[in-house]
Amino acid sequence: QVQLVQSGGDLVQPGGSLRLSCAASGIAFSIYSMGWYRQAPGKERELVANINSSGKTNYADSVKGRFTISRENAKNTAYLQMNSLKPEDTAVYYCNARQPTIFGGSNYWGQGTQVTVSS
Questions:
Q1: Per-residue pLDDT tens digits of the chain, which is 119 residues long
Q2: How far is residue 10 from each of residues 4, 22, 40, 74, 99, measured CA to CA in Å?
């Protein structure tokens, strides 16, 4: 059974930092691309950042220079370090694991975690 268990969401003041974690089980983690998405009220889910199996990263323009995605294959865990948080970063954040197409292309989601940036 595949599980992506997220942790780390919280209420934080503007300018603050948070780190989200996504612990995976039931998948060959090292071959998966891992991503973080977010969905704000009334908006569509959007990609925040992703990292492929080789460690190549990609970021939404809105978070470049502030957020860092990383992975620790030995712990089957992906992270999103968020610095200089802004109120517009407020959203439910979702972890995503995507299997390479050559192996089937399965797609899995975490349960979501609320990040609220407010004074």
A1: 999 999 999 999 999 999 999 999 999 999 999 999 999 999 999 999 999 999 999 999 999 999 999 999 999 999 999 999 999 999 999 999 999 999 999 999 999 999 999 99
A2: 18, 15, 15, 26, 29
Answer whether 82's CB lies under 8 Å from 67's CB. Answer: yes
Which token pair is 47?
A: 């990609």
Strands 113-117 and 33-39: unpaired
Tokens, residue 74: 């030995």
The span from the CA of 97 to the CA of 110, in Å, is 9
Q: How far apart are CA 111 and CA 95, in angstroms?
A: 8
